[in-house]
Structure formats: structure tokens, C-alpha cells
Amino acid sequence: MKEFDYVIIGGGCAGLSLAYELEIHNKLKEKSLAIIENRNEYKRDKTWSFWKVFDHNFEDCVIKSWNNFTINTSKNSHELSSSKFPYQSIDSGKFYKKVNSKLSCNSNISFFKNLSEINSTNSIIFNSIFNGEKNKSELWQHFQGVEIETSKDIFDDKILNLMDFNCDQRKDVHFFYTLPFSRNRALIETTWLSDLENQSLRDYDLQLENYIKNNLAIKNYKINFIEKGTIPLFYPSIENKNKVINIGSAGGMTRLSTGYTFLNIQEHSKYLRENFEKINSKKIYHLGKKYQFLDKIFLQVLKNNPEKMPEIFYKMFQNSANTVIKFLSNKSNIFDDFKIISKMPKIIFIKALINR
Ligand SMILES: Cc1cc2nc3c(=O)[nH]c(=O)nc-3n(C[C@H](O)[C@H](O)[C@H](O)COP(=O)(O)OP(=O)(O)OC[C@H]3O[C@@H](n4cnc5c(N)ncnc54)[C@H](O)[C@@H]3O)c2cc1C
């Protein structure tokens, strides 16, 4: 069986982002890389959105950027703007096409369906697989989105709705998210922050149908695309083995309070590329102890007080747009952190801190 210098297990967002970063910086000219991916074909399966707080390799895969967003509860609505940090959406189909066409030009890079097809005994392995679905009692962000198209121009495509809590919370945390890609096309997602035990929250089709009809007042539309997902809001318990470096969600790249992962994956890929020749001796990359600590308390509050979360999220966004964006994108300084913390209800956060 063929041996490889490097192996990436999982050719998804993290695996392909890393391979692309290595390839465009000529790290694979004289080294061989095997990518283990078990899907049969690459097609659009996700829409990755984030605030662009630094430049990334996939600007040409962005389908839409916005400078304005709203957040609302059943009582209040608040609009924020940032020209410094636009919110961007990436079409995963475009991402896969771009990366795969670049990688196919290098004969040192090969794809396999299963690790057993190669000899990886002496390889350095980047692993993006973890079987988190077993941890049903943990906190997850689970959601379904539909991209709809209407015959008339209905949406204001200059502004996205980040969180609409004006919906049935069913004793958990629930909001809708609307990304208007054009005046007649938008991705609308129903999103829950809860464990995965309660199957009754998963009537996503009905939730979306009701929201589109009753809240957005849209009667006629066609569905172009559906995406469904679960994002773990806990760190995976994966053993750190010698010569195995975990990446992507498996490598702790998900910000637990938000589920945002895409841009963290890009930063991690850059770190791995910059330290590529001595990667085994480098310390494990993480999003920052400060965010791990603050997110842990935040999620404790969320678990203990789901009914208070619409108001808490709403209050967080009463800061300037750039302060909140930097905080949620792990780029805040101590003054930003202080501003965010000062808007939070003190007693329930102190209780969560004590009972941590
Ligand atoms: C529908 C959806 C939407 C999301 N939207 C956003 C967003 O808007 N913004 C954001 O920041 N984050 C978002 N995320 C979170 C995160 O960015 C994605 O989950 C991202 O794809 C994580 O990258 P990854 O490489 O860790 O996992 P994946 O992209 O899932 O890659 C893992 C790869 O491993 C393959 N695989 C699995 N098991 C095996 C096996 N046994 N053998 C070989 N291959 C295997 C899979 O086919 C897959 O290609 C979203 C997640 C989902 C599910």
C-alpha cells in the first residue's frame, strides 16, 4: 500500500481549507498528501456565513455581503450597521469546486474513500472526524434552512435578520434567521439551541412553513435548496494522539456560544501552514482561553434560563455593532469584553459562575 507524508481525514470544510492553504503556499511540491473522504460527490450542502474580520482565501465563493443586520424579540427590534466588518455568505458548492479544481493540478495529492486503502503508519494525520451525534444530552445548535424564491420582489436585500425570537420557544431557545441573497431569493432557517433528545423540536418543515406564511407574509414561493445541520456546542472528547492533529469542529474550531466555525477553520489552516515543517512540536491551536471561559458561563446561563435568552441576546446587541462582532468573532479586546459583560443581567451570570 502506498505511503503518504500527510493524511487529511475528512475532505469537508476544514480538510479542504487546509489542503488549499498548503497547496497555494507550495507546501506540497515535494510532499505527498492523501485526503480521505467518503462522500460520493461534492455539491452544495451548506451555506457558511460569518463576519469578515480578516481576509480569507474564498472571497470568490461569497454569494452575498451585508453591512446591516437586525435582531428582534416579540417586543423589540434593533438594527446594527458595520461597514468595517461585513457579514458574508459562502456557497459550499462554489467552495468545493474551487478547492478541488486547484488540488487536482497537483499529482502529489490523492483522494481515497477509506483510510484502510493507504499505509498511514508514518504519516502526520490531520483529522476532522468525530462522532458527536452520540452525545445527545449535550447542547447543540440544530437547524434547517430553505432557500426560497418568490415571483415578486419581496425582500430588502440590504439587511439580514440575524435572530428573530418572535416565535414559539417551546421552553428551549429558538429563533429564525433570514439571509436575503436578492430581492426575490432568501435563505430562511429555523434554529434551536437545545439537546438532541427532544424529537418534537424537529418538525422543521412545519416551523418554516408557518414562519414564511405568518411572519414574513409570503404565500407563494418555490424552494431551491434545503440545508439541515447540527453543530456541537461542546468540545469533542477526542484523544490527542502523537502525529494526529485534530482540525475543524473535531479540533475545537466551533465558537461554542455561536456555532460560528468557518473563519476559525481558516485561521487554524494558516497556523498549520505557517508551522507545517515542525507541526508536531507546536502547541495545539485553540480559540483562546478567555472565550472558552466566557462561553462556558454563557451556555450555563442558557441551560438554566432558556426563557431569558431572547432578552439576553437582544441586550448583547445593544452595544456598537463592531464591539459585538469582534466579541462573537474572537477578536475583542478587554474594553469590548467589559462592554458586553456590562449589558448582561448580573445575578444569573454570577450564579452560573459559582455553579460552574
Ligand atoms: C448545514 C450547516 C451549516 C453551517 N453553517 C455555518 C455558518 O453559517 N457559519 C459557520 O461559521 N459555521 C457553520 N457551520 C458549522 C461549520 O462551519 C461546518 O460544520 C463545517 O463544515 C465544519 O467543518 P469540518 O471540516 O469540521 O466538518 P465537515 O465540513 O462536516 O467535514 C467533515 C468531512 O468528513 C467526511 N467524513 C465523515 N465521516 C467520514 C469517514 N468515516 N471517512 C471519511 N470521510 C468522512 C464528511 O463527508 C465531510 O466531508 C454549519 C454547519 C452545518 C452542518
**Whole-number average pLDDT?**
95
Distance between the termini: 49 Å
> What fraction strand?
25-35%
Helix content: 25-40%
The CATH topology of the largest domain comes to FAD/NAD(P)-binding domain
Give me the side-by-side strand order of the main sheet.
6-5-11-12-13-10-14
* Count of discrete domains: 3
Instruction: Give the names of the bound compounds.
Output: flavin-adenine dinucleotide
Return the CATH class of the largest domain: Alpha Beta
The DSSP helix count reads 9
CATH-defined architecture of the largest domain: 3-Layer(bba) Sandwich
Describe the structure.
This protein is α/β, with parallel strands linked by helices and 356 residues long. Strand 5 (68-72) and strand 6 form a beta hairpin. Helices cover 28% and strands 26% of the residues. Flavin-adenine dinucleotide binds next to helix 1, strand 3 and strand 14.
Q: Mind sketching the topology for me?
A:
Elements: E1 6-9, H1 13-24, E2 33-36, E3 47-51, E4 62-66, E5 68-72, E6 77-81, E7 87-91, H2 92-103, E8 109-112, E9 124-127, E10 140-149, E11 159-164, E12 173-182, E13 185-194, H3 204-215, E14 222-232, E15 244-246, H4 262-274, H5 289-304, H6 309-316, H7 321-328, H8 334-342, H9 346-354
Parallel strand pairs: 1-2, 1-9, 2-8, 5-11, 9-15
Antiparallel strand pairs: 3-7, 4-7, 5-6, 10-13, 10-14, 11-12, 12-13
